[in-house]
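The following record pairs a protein chain with its ligand, zinc ion.
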Amino acid sequence: MKIKFYGTRGSIPVSDPDFMEFGGNTTCLFISGVDEGAGTLIMDAGTGIRKLGKDIMDGNIEAGDEISLGFTHFHWDHVQGFPFFAPAYNSESKIHISTAGKRKIQNLKDIFSTQMQSIYFPVQLENMGAQIEFEKYNTDVVVGEKGAIVNIIEVNHPGGCIGIRFKFNKKSVVFCTDIEHPDEIDEDVVKLSMNADVLIHDAQYTDEELLTHKGWGHSSYSQAIEVAERSNVKQLIITHHDPDHDDEFLRKMEKNCKERFKDLVFARDNFELSF
Ligand SMILES: [Zn+2]
Ligand SMILES: [Zn+2]
C-alpha cells in the first residue's frame, strides 16, 4: 500500500519561506492499493488536492476509472481545494464523493454547490464537466468495490468529524485528523488504530498550547503518541501542523517526539511511504 500526503497544514494554507519544508497546503491524502488490487482513495480536498489533480491528469499517479474522494468533515481547510481539482473539469472523469458515519449532515451535494455559488467562484458545480456522484453512507463500515474495508468512527471535533481505518488484505492505515480528545484519550480511537501499520494522527499543539485551545478540535503531540503506544501501531505520522509552527519549530518537535516513539515522522507535503 502507498500513501502520499498532498497537504499537511492545519486550518489555513501558509506560504511563508520559513514553512516550506513541511509545506503550506491544507489536508489532502492519497491512499493507493492499486498494485494489490485495492483501488485508491483520496481523503479530503484541502488545497493539496490541486497538485494531486494535476498528477492524475498527467498520468503520474493511477486513481482508477472512478475517483473516490472521501471527506472526514467539511471545514474550509478540508474542502477549499475542490474547485481547483482538475479531474472535476474533465468530462471523461467519474468522481464519487462520499462521507460516512452516523452523524447527521445536510445534503452532501449542497455542501459543494454552496461553496461554488457564483458569489464565491466563477464556475458552478453543475458546470464543472465531470460526472460527480454524492453519497453519504450512514454506517460505520464501507466496503469498497475492490474489496478494501473502511471502518469509521465519529470523533470529537466542532461540527463533527470521522476517523477512518482503510484495510486491505493484511495492511491497514488509520487516518485520524481533526480530533480533540476529551479529558482522557478517546478509547474508540485506540480501538480503531489497534495494530495498524500506519497511524496518521492530528497533532496541532504542544501540551501547553492545548491548554489555551480547548474546544478548537485538535490534539497535542503527546496525545498522538499515547494513542500510537496504546494501540501498538508500527508507525506514527503526525499531521495538521499549526499555521503558526514554522519549519524550525516542527523539526525540533519531531526530534523530541522521536525520542519517545521511535518510528515517527512529521508529515510534509509530497511525503510518500509504502508499507
Ligand atoms: Zn482541519
Ligand atoms: Zn476541522
